[in-house]
Write a structure and sequence with these properties.
single chain, two-stranded parallel ribbon, 5-stranded parallel β-sheet, Rossmann fold, Helicase, Ruva Protein, domain 3
Amino acid sequence: MIRVFYGKDEFSIHERIKEIRLTAFSSELGDINTAFLDGKDLSRQELISTASTVPFMSENRLVIVDNLAKKFEFGRGVPKPKLGDWEGIESDLGIIPETTDLIFREGDLNPRNPMISALKNVAKVIFFQSLRHQEVIGWIINRADYLNAMIDRPAASLLAESIGGDLRILNTELEKLSLYKQGETIGRQDVSDLVPYVREQSIFRVVDAAIEGDTGQSLKMAGLLIKAGSSPSMVIRMIERQVRLLLLARDMKARNVSTSDIGKKLSLSGYPLQKTLDMERKLTKKSFLFMHDLILDTELKIREGFLSEELALDLLIGRIGH
């Protein structure tokens, strides 16, 4: 069987392949009969040779090819690339032995990617789409059950709001929470206390509310951050960091950098990345420069002793809103 797994939901792709490996091999011979190929440097001859190898003392052999189609990816305004040496690859793949289970593992690709189009002729192509918000909440509850843990819906909702649809990070946080609770139900307060993304979500709300002119809500959220242990100067630095991320995101978008690459360069994923990109779209270049100058002016007045940290933060939020 030949399959192509691609899409934004990298964690679900990983889990599907892990499930396939566990189902296909019940002994230590599984590793011997599994081959991993890096599509970046893979030749057509090497792929066919590896896929045509008979299994060793087993009924099946699993071959996993990573990011072959990525070599043929293209963006907006760029001509669709040719397959070159890979032209007609579907014909070669059509004669590999039935004992071989061949899986092409890809990331988020253009559906018109020429390699994906070619593989559709001989393979089952499955697109792993990012989950919607309500689906993420359901996934969290089900995943907690899979990990032999329990989480109430308000806690699952807070996790989903804070991290978004990055299932790998959600799984990691659920594992930490389940170890901490030791069989007890994970509640909203546990998520607030132990998950660092919750605080990051709060600073998004501070900046977002200020930008939209809701100064009262922005000040309220800043107050909650301070109550949770952040100093006013720390909140100002968090606002400064968010503005810097917005400027970097705008620059990369102007250079047609992909969303996944923007996330890697900013060290953001899931909710923080999506929120940064959403916020960037709301702002004009004039707004960016205005906020940048405000932050510099605020920090200067604190250092020179003209303003206390508390008053400086309040004034900064108020001025951003106007």
